[in-house]
Amino acid sequence: MTFTSLEQLPLAEHEFRIRRLKELLIRTIPQASGILVFARLNIYYLTGSWVNGLVWIPRDGEPVLLCRKGIDRARLDSPMTNMGEYRSFGQLQDILQDFEAPMGSTVAVDMTGLPWSLGRSLQKHLGTTTLVPGDHVLAKTRAIKSPWELTKMRRAGEIHNHCLCHILPHHLRPGMNEREISLKIWEVFMEHGHCGMMRMEHFGEEIFLGHVAAGDSGNYPSVFNGPVGLRGVHPVIPHMGDAGTVWHKHQPLTLDCGFCLDGYHSDKTQIYWDRNAIIPDQARKAQDFCLEIQTWIAERLRPGAIPSQLFTTCWQKARNLGHMEGFMGLGGNKVRFIGHGIGLAIDEYPVIAQGFDEPLEEGMTMALEPKIGIPGLGMVGVENTFEITPDGGKCLTGRIFDPIMI
């Protein structure tokens, strides 16, 4: 049988990513002889193939992709030539030696890509080899998007905006329940190219479609690492919306739903009101403040800007203007960030939060999401995806930032 890849990673793109990773590895972990990568999303980023296995990137020499399963798929999707198979970590040293890419005495490891049990097994089989964390190097490598990646993200953002702002409003009406709204969003997204799933990287985080929150669902207790609450389908599936919760005329409808095209994400939150709704002054003022915060940060999304400084200034603005109670979540839903990197995963590096003191770089992409929870009413605010440029943040998800009146 003869098969053709749906999209092989361009060789130049693969080489650009490997080169950037090596440069960061040498700069930040100079003692490491290379980096072992286990997380499938990182393997895909570096090789172009979604396989069960690992990739070894030596500081000197060509990378090696080793598969437990999926080598035939890897040969279709990846431009790499150094590929092999393995069954046990005990085989790694010999196999890599055969590829003339041996591991040295110190190896950086994608530690978040391995559960504890496999990490202990790896250490056991590598004997005296010292393993050091390499996760930050991988995160920084992926943070700057190539022109090839930006083309995909710009297209994702364009379609995302078109769906939420130009198509979906014709299908929404007060009286629909959250599940009905979720199904309609899913239908619209899938008709316009959504891949059908989205990915998050941080331990324990999951996502499906996004948050559909009518009225006070926007403040419903949530375990998700974001400000918007939601009832979800069931306690074991706290995603999408609840069939028993109806969107009423005088409530905000908050849709925080991501879009995924060719594996790359855009993130956008859109608020909807019935056109005849009586919108409380508190909600209007909170919405206006969130728009001001988004504009203020977007203008400063330039190379050299410090994320922690942007966060501190905005947090203080919210405190000074009396919005702190619900800013970035109400009660236990409050989160201490205002934006996050995005790309192959929704939750990428960097984050606009305390502790992120390394300057932004051109080509990074970030979702800004200032929001405010209002007791008894719901969640208002905004979220859009931006590309960092010398002229400030370039919005990839359209120019409709105000609530849409249905």
From TrEMBL:
Domain Creatinase N-terminal: 31-144
InterPro entries assigned to the protein according to its UniProt record, in alphabetical order: Creatin/AminoP/Spt16_N, Creatinase/aminopeptidase-like, Creatinase_N, Pept_M24, Peptidase_M24B
Classification via Gene3D superfamilies: Creatinase/methionine aminopeptidase superfamily, Creatinase/prolidase N-terminal domain
Ranges where the Peptidase M24 domain occurs: 152-389
Top-level taxon of origin: Bacteria
Protein name: Peptidase M24
Organism: Desulfoplanes formicivorans
